[in-house]
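Researcher: We're reviewing a set of sequences before deciding which ones to prioritize for further study. For each one, I'd like a predicted 3D structure that I can look through quickly. This is Methionine--tRNA ligase. If possible, include the structure in token form so it fits the rest of the review sheet.
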Amino acid sequence: MSQQSQHILTAVAWPYANGPRHIGHVSGFGVPSDVFSRYQRMAGNKVLMVSGTDEHGTPIQVQADKEGLGVREVADRYNRVIAEDLTALGLSYDLFTRTTTENHYAVAQEIFKGLHANGYIFPKTTMGAISPSTGRTLPDRYIEGTCPICSYDGARGDQCDNCGNQLDPIELVNPVSRINGETPVFVETEHFMLDLPAFAEVLGTWLQSKQGEWRPNVLKFSLNLLGDLHPRAITRDLDWGVPIPLEGWSDQANKRLYVWFDAVIGYLSASIEWARRSGDPDAWRQWWQNPEARGYYFMGKDNIVFHSEIWPALLLGYNGQGARGGTAGPLGALNLPSEVVSSEFLTMEGRKFSSSRQVVIYVRDFLERYDADALRYYIAVAGPENQDTDFTWSEFLNRNNGELVAAWGNLVNRSISMAAKNFGAVPEAGELTDADRALLARSRAAFAPVGAELNRSRFKNAVTEAFDVVRDANRYLAEQEPWKIKDDPERVKSILHVALQVVDDAKTLLTPFLPNSSNKIHAMLGGTGLWSGMPELQEVEEGGRSYPVITGSYEGGARWESTPIRPGTPLAPPTPLFRKLDPKIVDEELARLGE
Ligand SMILES: [Zn+2]
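Model: Here's the predicted structure for Methionine--tRNA ligase, in token form for your review sheet.
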């Protein structure tokens, strides 16, 4: 690679720990961010990929109430489930942590204090709910009523689950306490607001500089938001979250930082935690303060506002770069996102995913029945990259059987088994024909365009172009028919040499998408050592709690280039790479979907 090695932060949206995640979630933030990170590592860049479970806020409390458990127990349970599932999917996080760590509390509070010191946070008296019978504060989640926006009658005091809008309890029509059904009384309560209008100008300049770089839908959406920026509450009447780090506030059990405020800071706190665990506590600065570093944020489209507007505003405020000026806090000035990569939504057989209506397939259940690479491939080639997209079991079956098994698996299998059977090793090529040279040149030439698509997060184009190499190689074998040549072993050697070289190239091109099968092909072709590293769970402890983090060593041998295969390398008969699925799985899976 002629290009110099860059520091690349892959900041992946934080899954919310109130339940297991389904394939719609991982198609939005999970697989795309991993494909991107694996490619960047192969291209020689220094990647830091971080995320974790988002564990504060009302929905976890609601889930805890439902299960009759404490909030920590619920957070612990789903943190573990989610970490296990993302590991099984092969997502190569350098650190996947959680928002309930001491480190995260400290970093979230530090950002709050920096914003406060620079004048971008101000207190405001609003109306909060109390229970008239007890006189105590009623946290938002205990108030229910009709949504003023969509008229849904089960909206909560902080959010409407039907239309997704954030609410204030006082906005609800006919609010009632979920504890005893009484009508709450609203009294004055104080909260902190983020002065978003103070960032309108600098955000506008910054967003305009991203023209032609970001996906157009993300940029257009973000620019539209600019015209309507209002101060936004960053604290809440809530007893589960990060305490407010100011005198007179920190000891109030019912005042906490708003969950979205602490969650976006997770990208930074996880980077700082990763550095501490790596033994070099300042290492995170290379990704956050080096002006050459680039930060890519991956999420579903419902989260764009937090990454293109609010998180940049928090960073600008901490740096002292908004309309009120100021100076950077003790951490130093921090880099803004380079790119916000948002996916659209995945639906399931024409319907919205819904856990309550059983229109869902959880990652764990999927991976119990099918291979991780099969799901990764589907998401890359047919996922919701540019538009809302429907997952159907028949398309999953067809792509698995037609593309992975029949096209790619079969190419690998025929080439290696013929060479193993006839020669026991990678054969030497004799004189090459025009067709041989054309195919070799064609697969070598695929690295630049496929790499360019991956670098721009155009995963569908990238995997399609990589698969074109597979199709051309199959066509070449069909035309050359080495199995029919009986009297010219030298020609057979040349054909199989060419085929194996192209298999090796395609293995490399497909590694970001299909790391498990590429690792197998690497071994089949006599490769030694690790090719593309896989994540692992590591049990860590804090405050008497033991929990898993995802980490891994991704310093494998995979490089984004064509590497000549070595004649004479012993070959064993290959084992199948992918499982062919029985068409009856479509009906079985559809029967599992509820109404
Ligand atoms: Zn609503």
